[in-house]
Amino acid sequence: MKLFENIKIALNSVLAHKLRSILTMLGIIIGVGSVIAVVAIGQGGEQMLKGSISGPNNTIDMTYTPSDEELNANPNALFEASFTEEDIKSIRTINGVKQVASSTAQGMQLRFQDTTVDATVNGINEGYTDVHSLQIAEGQNLRDIDFRSGRRAALISDGLQKRTIQWTKGIR
Predict the structure, then answer these.
(1) Containing H/E element for 104?
(2) In angstroms, rounded to a whole number, what is the distance separating the alpha carbons of residues 166 and 163?
(3) At residue 122, what are phi and psi to the nearest 5 degrees?
(4) Concatenated DSSP letters for 39-89?
(5) 154, 118, 163: which is closest to 134 by C-alpha?
(6) Phi, psi of 91, rounded to the nearest 5 degrees
(7) How far apart are CA 108 and CA 148, in angstroms?
């Protein structure tokens, strides 16, 4: 019975002090709305910051180019690996990192049978095709065993295939 008496007293108090009750409700509504707005602004800012740091498909590209001083001291610095296997292993241990792709590129002449073309050759690790979402048009993707064993395996672009190989299957 005390519960109903307490509810009755509370309602009488609210009705007796209407202005105070309205101002209290208004304060609660404004307070809750402010908290919601601040949280939404914080989450929006976080997403904007992540979007400005990461590239397409939520990736972050780290590129190293030797400085002029490094090139003067070592002219081969441009062709040497800038990230070691230890660097890649360390990056993999960072919380939130799903895959690490590394690559190095060099322009060279490629020869297939009697055809020679200028092309860019990219040396990649096992995470590259996943991170860059490469679509394999023909054949199979590179496998982990290809990387671990140092097998001579390659992926070639459609353009290179059309310029050099007039539809030859079973290229090894």
Answers:
(1) strand 103-112
(2) 8
(3) -105, 120
(4) HHHHHHHHHHHHHHHS-GGG---------HHHHHH-GGGGGS-SS-HHHHH
(5) 154
(6) -65, -35
(7) 25
Query: Are 90 and 63 contacting, i.e. CB atoms less than 8 angstroms apart?
Result: no
The residue with greater pLDDT, 166 or 17, is 17
pLDDT of residue 5: 93
| Res 171: pLDDT | 46
- Nearest CA to 155 out of 121, 105, 131, 132 is that of 121
Residue 100 near residue 87 (C-beta atoms within 8 A): no
H/E element holding 7? Answer: helix 2-16
Spatial distance between the Cα atoms of 109 and 164, rounded to a whole number of angstroms:
12
Residues 6+ apart with CB under 8 A from 53: 60
